[in-house]
Structures
1.
Amino acid sequence: MAIEGPLRELGIHDVFQLLDLSRKTGILSITSPLRDNQGAVFFERGAVVFAAIRTNPHPLGELLLRAGKITESDLARARDAQARGDGSKRLGDLLVEAGAISRKELERQVRFQVEEVIFELMSWREGFFSFEERAEVDAPAEANIRISTESLLMEAARRIDEWSRIEAKVPNLDVVAVLADVGDDHPGFLELLPREWEVLSEIDGERNLRAIARAIAHSDFDVARVIYGLITTGIVALKTERPLEPEAAPTPTPEPDAPVLEPAREALRSGDAEGALAAANAVLTADVASVEARLVVSRALMKLGRPIDAAEALRAALNGDALNPSLHRELGFCAAWRGDLLAALGSWERYLRMQPAAADASHVRAVADAASRLRDLLQEHLDV
């Protein structure tokens, strides 16, 4: 049975949700005359297994090359082998067989590629969609992946929320960034994250943000977010705009009787989850926007065996600070505790993308690897 119609009548998010809830298998085609573009998403029992767009900014070979995962000679040899063969072997498989990249890294990069196509398609508000249901799909993916549609919808919603804040300084991806004029009072030493240095090094006053994203094989969204942060700190300005004088930050005047968070943390360390919860909630009563208090609340709720309530506390904090990596890390542990390993892996992946050099990054990667192995073993059990 075909499901089709204009996007102005049934939004693309609703289409994805419908296919997820009904566990459909088939191919969703989306066409946008305004953009002169077309995309296709392959579904298998409601989950996404592949996605492609005609103007794909991240072809796999170039993506791996720009990300530093393979060399130009690796790519050239794989393409030659593909050309000499019968064309049935995928480029990714050839790179794995040649030892240029691990299977796990290949799947990670293919997942990134598919996710970015999905998020691009989810930004379309006009056009036409058509779903062709099939008994099975033969997805032309470079690796076998399976992505929860629910997690994609949640991430898309999060990006929409973040874009509403980013757009105040970065109106679109066609703007050109330049280094801002440095005042006498600007610190001479820059303490930036590796991702920020990577983006900053690509700013040349000529290429727009979309071109920079393609050059370093990162998502448009991640580059826009980094540029937003660099503009906010006065390091970067937009070429089409005159940099504003930095405003002096107001000195906070805390209430003298406002509760502090240390008693809540101490209660948590001593194993008094109820006491920690009460103390952290007291802080939230005085300062509803306190992210640190909500982190303590979530930890206390987890110790009390209430992972669903803990996740709600974290999502409330994300509404106020969607760029806080700790919230994504903790949300991953909440999801894992509930048994939702796909959601957990998605949250941890976002955390590691935001904080690749964090002190606990190796620990989070180890936990994510263990969760991934457990999920694979469970899947093998179902397939027996």
2.
Amino acid sequence: MRWIVFFLSSIAMAAPCTTANKTCMEKVPMPGERYLLVYRSQPLTERATNVERVFVLVHGLQRDGESYFKSAIDAAKDSHELGRTLVIAPQFHAVDGTCKDKPEAGEVIFACRGWSDGVATKEASLSSFEALDRVLRMVANKDLFPSLKEIVIAGHSAGGQFVQRYAATNRIDGTVIVPLRYVVANPSSYLYLESWRPVDNPGASCPQFNRYKYGLDGLTGYEAETGVAAIKANYPRRAVTYLLGELDTTPEHSMDTTCPAMAQGPNRRQRGMTYFERLNQTFHSSHKILSVPGCGHSGGCMYRSANGRLAVFGK
């Protein structure tokens, strides 16, 4: 009997997988007998009693899941939380437009100009938001992870855009067995729930300023299935924290300079502060905001900072 207890404990406390290569990758089943590749610190289908939190970190514009997996692992180590945290970094590959990834046979691909917004196209018919839904349903499983208490979904830059829109439009929040929290770091733009912008008459010079991904006009696919009314009702009540780098005030690192984005403010930091303040005033949201001293546009800096670790791990 003692041998059985020791054996089960050794499985539950197996050393985390922390190397950003194929040894720490897993295939998550997707529609059409395809799969999504994710980096993960522990197997997603093996029972682990130590896991209290799932930390999903979404990569940025370069679709470099390996870099974000490393940043997430480092942040968990810095917080002494790796032993209790299942780290996941999904890999959203794209091959159209300017995206020239080299996915494996059977791997699902996403739209180059749509993966960060959950938009599907004729060439890439699966929404990245639906793909994440499937990952979350897999891990929100008390049979596999009986100690699980929460799932934290975070992203930086284009990944921050992904998480902000996913937090607003997903239909899985409230249907899984543990709470979801969202951490949005330094996105170039935000999904507004209204037509107001911090500039006068934005539609005069930018007729498309309120179309999705910047506003709620013209919803399609996944977002349209959720609907405008549900988005407006749900998003302000969800557990969202905005992380803004104090030094992220320049247009470097491919900041969105299109007219719908510029209608939201001159730089990423100002856009985030304005969005947060307006959402609180108009929709009385329960969201939080944290400034990160010394950080510009760097996911590693943001999530390894004291306030980044506070937002994810509560410490």
3.
Amino acid sequence: MGGLVYLFPGQGSQKVGMGRDLFAQSLEARAVFEQADRTLGTALSKLCFEGPADELTDTVNAQPAILVTSIAMLRMAQAAGAPQADWVAGHSLGHFSALVAAGSLELPSALHLVRERGRAMNLAGQQRPGRMAAIIKLDAGQLDAVCRRVSAETGQYVGIANDNAPDQIVIAGETDALEKACQLAKDAGAKRVVPLAVSVASHSPLLAGAAETMKEVLRDIEVRRPAVPLISNVTAQPLDDPQEIKADIIQQLTSPVKWTASIETIVRQGGATFVEVGPGSVLTGLVKRIVPSAEAWSLEDPDGLSKLLALAGSK
């Protein structure tokens, strides 16, 4: 068996009903949801299971909701006998789920961090409004050149926010600059340009205010060395030192997510089997586009858990 990697999804993977079956079928998963409700002092589990969708989609709620659903799924799988991962990584918000999975953060601390992160991002988005768009099938170098040109011409920021896969890159920036960059990307040969339904320019300098807020929030949070290799979104390299982990959490808000490079780093180190732990299967699809030879599936697949448990005897 190739090296086992647990991947944790980020914002956008939320959906009404997520975690409901976990809660009903697994005592360990139920305990996670109940702990989250107590920690946050709100019925987060009810919001996950029943919605409404617009409230669940609000950044302040979506971030802890995705975190708790991911960790509930992980605990369910572990209780069933799932093997220990050789690496963990999470996309953007999913990095906090990875931190919990690696033993660097306790779940209550992670819930507090992502709730405050969501609030800080909302506030930063009001102070410096921006938008995001996915650019399909345009070389990263070409797209970066487009963004630099637009920023120079408009005096507004636009740049790469997520390098998700070789054929899918997300840009973020101030509205006028983003619209111009999207048009130039089309002119340069992009197959599609897809505006995202967000009002915050994540992973860009427009969130500098949120980064400053998170510095203060992190002061009293205990972070431990990860028990398994944990890959940074910011550098696409392993994180080990607790102070470096805190700095990475802050920097992640204003830095691009290097997802393609992160997966490539893991593959170079021996990773070959990728299991998505959390709602949805977006990361599974991205892995298959980055490394077509890799084995990848989501625990939400009907046979996802049985495939993972089958690996236990070979580790």
4.
Amino acid sequence: MSSGIALGREERLAELCARLGGELDAVARERVVARIVLPEHATRATDLVVVTSARFVARASAHPGVTLCSPEQASRLPAGNRWIHAHADWALAELLDGAAPPAVPRGPAHVDPGAEVAGDALLGPGAVVLAGARIGPGSSLGPNAVVYGNVVIGARVSVGAGAVIGRPGFGWVTGPSGRVRRMPQLGGVVVEDEAEIGALASVDSGTLAPTRIGAGAKLDAHVHVGHNAEIGAGCLVAAQSGFAGSVVLEPGVQVGGQVGVKDHVRVGARARLAAKSGVIGDVPSGATVAGFPAVPRVRWLRAMARLLSR
């Protein structure tokens, strides 16, 4: 496997800068780039190296290509071959988009005649769409993804391989005789526009009203969303996190990996839950919490420092 990602054709740096923004060193305006590589693999004048962290500066200081860098790192890099961009990672994503193969391969899928699937939706091999489901325009289902009935998926939504959307939620009730039975979960799921649900993630159907994934929310692989939960617009959830029934994440919440959130907890807008946190109570807007039970991150760090100093 070759190092780096080819752009398909040589691109003039001045044209890229005009299209994507940023500032160029004067002598770099006539440079061209043909592939994007890690600093240690840069061997050509047409290589583009991205530096957004101080740990890459030393390796990127002597290569012969062009450096796309954040303003914070620009002063640490030699002048002359810099493309300085306030959102360097975003610019990289735009460049890679044009070089990426199709994210979802086309293949035979099972679509029930009672389902509605937009004409330009992309269904991967083995995907299953059951009667009553609706898939919006520009959306995609990865291989072996399953969408149950009473699920509405909006426009430009990405559902990863093996994800399951709309299965009956984990709800059980006990009768007078002590016998346990399942609570029917008939509310379905709504996934709003431009959300992303990662591979092997699961989103359970609500009981009376839909479980909801907000517009632009991004769920990583192996994330579980319980019945009646609401994941707000623009939330970012890292892998292996789980939300019990009726959890509410307000818009813009960021969740680290392997976080667990107790049922009926509300997490305020733009709050941050550190990796491996166990959240058993409401979290205020804008707060950052960590640990189990989750507390303000600074308090948790102080407690860990005292514990480790013994």
